[in-house]
Specification:
The protein has 2 helices and 4 strands, in the order βαββαβ. It has helices spanning 14-26, 56-73, and strands at residues 3-9, 35-43, 46-53, 79-84.
């Protein structure tokens, strides 16, 4: 079952996000298996991330890769939420 993950990083900076993305790109981990969509939007001084994953297991596999990287960079103290996906409608 697909899941929707929402990461509210209102207390972090977009520069920190951009640095994490560059690190993932440098290691070839920026397009993980099982992630269907990744969207980042500015929220005040911080940002939010919305991901759609094929499954909870796919997200957990990526967390094993990105978790240590974020810890090393100073993981933000955001709030995360997970929801089962009911429907996805793709644009034309």
């Amino acid at each position: 079952m697909s899941i929707l993950m929402i990461f509210d990083e209102s207390s972090d900076t977009i520069a920190h996000y951009d640095a994490a993305i560059r690190q993932l790109e440098a290691t070839g981990q920026n397009r993980p298996a099982g992630r269907l969509h990744h969207i980042t939007a500015i929220k005040g001084e911080g940002y939010i991330i919305v991901d759609v994953w094929e499954s909870q297991e796919a997200f957990e596999q990526f967390e094993q890769i990105v978790g240590p990287l974020l810890d090393q960079m100073g993981r933000p103290d955001g709030q995360n939420q997970s929801y089962p996906v009911h429907n996805i409608i793709k644009g034309a």
